[in-house]
Amino acid sequence: MELQFFKDFDFTDFWNESTYSVRDYIEPFPEDDLIASIEEELGYKLPASYIELMRLQNGGLVDKSCFPTSEETSWADDHMAITGIMGIGREKTYSIGGELGSQFMIEEWGYPAIGIYICDCPSAGHDMVLLDYSNCGKDGEPEVVHIDQEDDYKKTFLAKDFETFIKGLKEEDEFDNE
């Protein structure tokens, strides 16, 4: 597969290949009809960079799990952390159409219905990463933001697009200041 995005990105040591990841996150590679039905179900066009990554590996836990921030988050004063990236599908618990996917977070946890929730965080649902379509419309290129349920759904800007977000993820030990 010829990459349009992530051409210069090294995925060595990016994904965490645990049995938990296989059991709860990693979906089969998404076909066009599944992508279209998920987009229709969620009401948004998925970014091409997200689809491309999901065609390399469709969801999973990550070892590069921290994203630097310019403001404090519920996780730390200089970054936020994710557990995994939700794949395109409905079969796994942590896929965007799955049991604990995007719609569940909106309907059951009261998260704002302004996009697609694509990453869970170590807080077990108390914060999430969102493809935010607020500024671009349902067919545009969404920004990536952190939403903190514990802080009245505070939105913290992370990246201008999904590719920038993925390329900006760092290993946790890069933030250990102790």
What does this protein structure show overall?
With 178 residues, the chain is α+β, with helices and mostly antiparallel strands. The model has no long low-confidence stretch (mean pLDDT 94). A hairpin with a 6-residue loop joins strand 5 and strand 6. It has one domain: 3-Layer(aba) Sandwich (SMI1/KNR4-like). It has five helices and eight strands; from the N terminus they run αααββββαββββα. The strands form two sheets. Strands 1-4-5-6-7-8 form a six-stranded antiparallel sheet. Strands 2-3 form a two-stranded antiparallel sheet. The protein starts with 18 loop residues before the first helix and ends in a 10-residue tail after the last helix. The longest helix is centred in the first third of the chain and has 11 residues, at 32-42.
Write the layout of secondary structure elements.
Elements: H1 19-24, H2 32-42, H3 48-56, E1 60-61, E2 66-68, E3 79-81, E4 84-85, H4 102-107, E5 115-120, E6 127-132, E7 143-148, E8 154-159, H5 162-168
Antiparallel strand pairs: 1-4, 2-3, 4-5, 5-6, 6-7, 7-8
Q: Total helix count?
A: 5
Percent of residues in helical segments? 10-25%
Name of the CATH homologous superfamily = SMI1/KNR4-like
Round the mean pLDDT to the nearest integer and report it: 94
The 3D shape can be described as globular
* Structural category: alpha+beta
The spatial strand order of the largest sheet comes to: 1-4-5-6-7-8
Radius of gyration: 15 Å
Number of β-strand runs: 8
Low-confidence stretches: none
CATH class: Alpha Beta
Strand count, sense and barrel status of the largest sheet are: 6 strands, antiparallel
Percent of residues in β-strands: 15-25%
Give the SSE string: HHHEEEEHEEEEH
